[in-house]
Each structure stands twice: as structure tokens, then as C-alpha cells.
Amino acid sequence: MTTARPLKVLHVVHALGMGGAETWLMEVLRRWSADGLGHMDFLLTGGARDLFDDEAERLGAHLHYVRYGRGDVRAFAGRLRDILRGEQYDAIHDHQDYVSGWHYLLGAGTLPPVRVTHVHNPWMHISANYAVTPSRRTAAYVGKRLVHRFATHVCGTSAEVLRTYGFDEGGRNEPSVAVAHCGIDVAKFSQPREADRASVLREFAWPADTKLVLGVGRLDRALEFEHPQNHKNSWLALNVARAAHAKDSAVRMIMAGGGEPQCVQIGGAIAEWGLQRDLRLAGVRLDVPRLMRAADVLLFPSRQEGLGMAAVEAQAAGLPVLASTAVPREAVVVPELFEVLPLTASVEAWADALLQRVAKPRPSLDVCRSALERSPFSIVHSAERLVAIYRERAA
Questions:
Q1: pLDDT tens across 198-208, in order?
Q2: Which pLDDT band, with edges at 50, 70 and 90, does 131 fall under?
Q3: How far apart are CA 44 and CA 42, in angstroms?
Q4: Most distant pair of Cα atoms in the chain: their distance
Q5: In 3-state terms, what secondary structure has residue 14?
């Protein structure tokens, strides 16, 4: 039996920052680099370097910085076509939903045999664009039609996000539509927690009896509940932690995620509450697995999620999750660790549920590790899924 040659794939993302899709792609790149499964390059439409660029280059990826926007279309098309002609990829994997259709149009005639559009983001981001101007509505509508015209595959991080974007699974016509979950290196999260808990409590100067609530995700650009830029519901999360602290002074919270303007605004509110030492905005952290092992509960009250990988990571770490019912149920891997509340529940109800979740016993770490390793969220299975998609039609 002959061994299939390594694949060569171009991924299209805005930047290699601390996002769910980007951290997944870096795990795939690490695995492909170590195992010789293939070669990955990146087309970065934001046109600038970011958090993971240096590592990606060390692992052998070529990074093409090609800004995409209204004023950049002609230059983008020329660079894209030159890259595709020169590199002869087996697949292009575009992670920018309907915009990928426009990318395909601009690269028509030079596109590789496999063309994958991947939907990651909540529908609220697209619907907000619809509401801005008729031209944006038209661009999204045409982009979707172009995806149907050019893509060989449409993948989504969950079945729910595929449905909300208007892609139906299981159809016989092109493009092929199916779920392709992001994956994690389970071993990074599934470690004993005692040492990490002690070190995190020392870092923040908190006592040993702390009941540690963790929030993970970029701080929202808007604090109003119904605002389309209120995605992770970080303002609600902070108010829930504040209410829980009022009921039990042992409660502390770490919010890990970027967002400088929001950090100033939210930090001011925390100062007004007099809780600067108890509710901490930690910014972007590269040690999220450590924070998850240290914490007692992940608070995840998102208004929408493509899937919600932070909740999956928490389960790998054996960390209980209190999430909103808006988080797709596909994120539940260890049911004993996962509880949900509707977004209509009061802050008091969320605070009570949070304290009750902290008090419940956890399943063993071995149980959690085994469940995640068997799941499609394991990077082993996730990377294999991508290989199967690319090999389906690659030359």
C-alpha cells in the first residue's frame, strides 16, 4: 500500500490571535508539523502580525499578509491569485463565513480542488451587518451565493451555527455541508489541579478558601444586553459574580480576555463597587489551562456561540460549567459538569446557581479525560477529520 503524500493547505483568517478558531488551527499546525501529516500556510486578511505568528513560522508555515477590505479588492485579488498559482495548494480553507465566497470569486481560475468555507462565529455578527446598510446586506447575500457556487465543503463548529447561516447538513449537492468541530490538546488541560490552584491564589493574593469563578473570552464591545456587540455577556457575568460575592464573601472572579477600551470601562465599574481585589480583569492569558485547573466553576453566559470552546476546555480540565441555554448542546461532553440557565433568569438566580454548582462534587479527572479523548473535540480526531475532508477531492 502506498503512503499518501503530505497535503498542502492554505487557511484564510483575519489574524493569528487568541480566538477559538485560531488556537485550534495552531493545535492542528503543531500536530501536522510533528507527525508530517501535511503543510499549512496562512493568508492573513488583517494584514498585520499577531500573537501566534512567530510560532507558526517556527513550525514551517508561510504567512501571507494580504489586507482585505473595500479599498483593497484589486490588490487582494492579484496577491491571492499569485499565491495560489505559485504554491499549488491541495485545499483552501477559509474561516470568514460569507466573505469566503468573495475570496473564491477573486481567485477564480486559480483555486485548488478543495475549497472549504468554515462557519465559526455567532449569527448575531452577520445579522448586525445586515442591519447597518443595504450594501452590507447585499454583500452578505451575494457572498452566500458565491459560497454555494465555489465551495466544495461548508463546515460549521456546530450543527446549530450551520442552520442559522442557512446551510443544511446532509444534502447530496455541492457544497457538502457538515459539522467539523474545533479541537484541543486534551493533555494540556487534563492535569492534577492542586499545584496550579495554589499558584494562582498566590498570584492574586487570595486565601485558600477562595471560591474561584473564571470567565474566558474577549470583553464585549457593548454592555447593553440586546446590543449586537454583546456576545460573551461579560457584563452580566461580572454582575453575577458581584451578586455571588455579596452572598458569599469567599467568591472571587478572574476574567481572562482582551479588549482594552472595555477593560477601562468595566474596570471603572468594579472600582465603584469597591471590588478591585475580588473581581480581576486579567487580560489576554496564555495560561488558560492553568487558570481552569485552579478555578471552581466556569461562568459562560453567552448570548450566542458558534460552539463555545472555552466550555469544552473546562470539561477537559474537570472544571464545572454554568452556561446559558444559548450555548449549543454539542458543547456538552461530560454532562455531570455542565449546567445551564436561560438568559431570562435574574442575576440573583444566576448567582444562586453559581454557588450551588461550586458546592457540588466533580467527576474524577480520569472520567473527564477519557470522555474528551473519545470526543470529536480531541485534536487527534479533529485533525483527522480535516485530513479526511481535504483528501476527499485533493489531486
A1: 999 999 999 99
A2: low
A3: 6
A4: 69
A5: coil
Q: Is the per-residue pLDDT at 1 higher than 60?
A: no
331 CB burial (10 A radius; 0-12, 13-18, 19+): buried
Band of pLDDT at residue 190, cut at 50, 70 and 90? very high
Q: Hey, what amino acid is at 88?
A: Q
User: Could you tell me the strand order of the sheet in which 38-44 lies?
Assistant: 63-65, 38-44, 7-13, 91-94, 114-119, 153-156, 176-179
Tell me the percentage of the chain whose pLDDT exceeds 70.
95
Which residues, other chains included, contact 149 with Cβ-Cβ below 8 Å and sequence gap of 6+?
Answer: 101, 104
CB 64 within 8 A of CB 41: yes
Grid cell in block for residue 91: 485545499
List the Cα angle 42/47/52 in 5-degree steps: 50
Nearest Cα residue to 49 out of 10, 24, 25, 15: 15
Strand pairing class (251-256; 338-341): unpaired
Per-residue pLDDT at 355: 98
- Burial track 106-116 (b if 16+ CB lie within 10 A, e otherwise): bbeebbbebbb
The 3-class SS string of 180-205 reads CCCCECHHHHCCCCHHHHHHHHHHCC
How far apart CA 34 and CA 60 sit, in angstroms, is 11
Average pLDDT over residues 128-135: 70
36: left (phi over 0), alpha (psi -120 to 50) or beta: left
Ramachandran sector of residue 363 (left: φ over 0; alpha: ψ -120 to 50; beta: rest) = beta
Q: What are the DSSP calls for 252-298, one per residue?
A: EEEEE---HHHHHHHHHHHHHHT-TTTEEEEES-S-HHHHHHH-SEE
Query: pTM (2 decimals)?
Result: 0.94
C-alpha cell at 16: 493569528
Burial class (CB in 10 A: 0-12, 13-18, 19+), 41: buried
Query: Which residues lie below 8 Å from residue 24, measured CB to CB, with a gap of 6+?
Result: 182, 183, 184, 309, 379, 382
Q: How many CB atoms lie within 10 A of CB 55?
A: 13
Is the link from the previous residue into 175 a cis peptide, with omega within 30 of 0?
yes
Task: For residue 236, give the nearest of 160, 300, 188 by alpha carbon.
Answer: 300
**Predicted confidence band of residue 223 (pLDDT cuts 50, 70, 90):** confident
CA 305, CA 284: separation in Å to the nearest integer? 20
